[in-house]
Amino acid sequence: MEEDDRVLAVLLFGSVARREDHSKSDIDVALVVPGASHFYYDCRGISDMEVKKEDVLMKVYREVDPDSGKFDVHIFEELPIHIQMNVIKDHRIIYTSDRYGMYEYFYNYRKLWEDQRHRNTMCREELLESI
Fold first, then answer.
1. For 49-72, how does the pLDDT look when each residue is reduced to its tens digit (9 = 90+)?
2. What's this model's pTM, rounded to 2 decimal places?
3. CA 67, CA 38: separation in Å to the nearest integer?
4. Cα 83–28–17 angle (5° rounding)?
5. pLDDT tens digits, 25-42
6. Which residues contact 39 (CB under 8 A, 6 or more apart)?
7. How many Cα atoms occupy the beta-carbon half-sphere of 78 within 13 Å?
8. Residue 10 pLDDT level (bands cut at 50, 70, 90)
9. d(CA 96, CA 3)
10. Dihedral Cα 112, 8, 103, 29, nearest 10 deg
11. Could you report the per-residue pLDDT of 80-129, keeping only the tens digit for each?
C-alpha cells in the first residue's frame, strides 16, 4: 500500500490494537482513503481525486486472503461514525504517508462525532422509554 498514493494510512484497530486479543481474535485493519468518501477534507491533495473503494480493496485482497478469517479489512470512510471514532481513538499505525496529515484529516470526523454523539448515545431514561 506504500506505493498507492490513494491510501493515506493503514491502521490496526480493535482487540489486537488494544492488546486484548485472544486465540480466536481477527485482525481489524482500516484503510484511510480520503477519496473514497464524499466527506472530503483536502489533505495534501489526496482527497481531490475520487477513489473507487473496490479498486483499493482488490489490491489488498491480492496480498491478503479475505476468506482466511484472520484479517477483517475495512475502508475507514465506509465505517459507521461510532466505529470511526473507535479507530481514531484506539489505533496503531501500520503505515501512513503523512502522520500529521492523517490526524488533521481525522479532525473533521471528530467534529462530526461531537455534533452527532448525543444521537448515537442514549441515557438510561431514553433507553427505558424505548422498551
1. 666 667 777 777 667 766 666 888
2. 0.74
3. 29
4. 85
5. 888 999 998 877 655 544
6. 77, 108, 109, 112
7. 15
8. very high
9. 11
10. 80
11. 988 999 999 999 999 999 999 999 999 989 988 888 777 666 666 776 77
CB 28, CB 74: distance < 8 Å: yes
Residue showing cell 477519496: 35
Q: Which amino acid is at 55?
A: D
Which three cell numbers mark 50?
475520487
Domains, the chain, ordered by start: 9-130 (3.30.460)
Pair 1, 10: CB distance under 8 Å: yes
Amino acid at 45: G
Torsion angles phi and psi, residue 80, rounded to 5: -60, 150
Cα 98 from Cα 5, distance rounded (Å): 11
From CA 12, how far away is CA 104, in angstroms rounded? 18
